[in-house]
Amino acid sequence: KRAKPADHQRSIERCVQLGVRYVRFFVSASDGDRSVALSRCADALVPLADFAKARGITIAIEPGASVHTQDGTFLGEMAARVNHRHCRLMPDFGKLRGDIYAGTQAMMPHSVVISAKTHEFDAAGNQIEFDYFRLMKIVAAAGFRGIVAIEWEGKKLDPVAGVHASKRLIERALAAL
Fold first, then answer.
1. CB 3.0 to 4.6 Å from 26: which of 64, 88, 114, 127, for a disulfide?
2. 61 has which bridge partners?
């Protein structure tokens, strides 16, 4: 079931009540023509960003469920089209598909928060699916000074141990810069 604009507006109003600055949203794009999907996403986001701005909230778009919205280059291009200070992006290392390094780089100029997701670690404490050192280098090179949120989704460690292992990995990656 697709959310209606009024549902998103209610979410933004709840953020105002809670005193938060950001609300995370997914965008939905058909997996057809890329340019049509870009236009539809941008057309839908501008009024929502205006609504959020009037309430002092910034929406953060994270990679979604469609082929297009899991592509960071698509999201970066979409954010450039929207061109709104209250509509930003949230790279999520675990949700980006394709070339996650190029996708992260494309998203960085428009990003307000990073979801530093991890799933599983090797014996050395490195994320198995992708190179965190390379990703954090991209984040740092973009001059990002925002929030880096840790999101553990693995199964081999309990949630607290997974978050601590993720934090250690991020700290090692940042120290290596």
1. 64
2. 25, 89
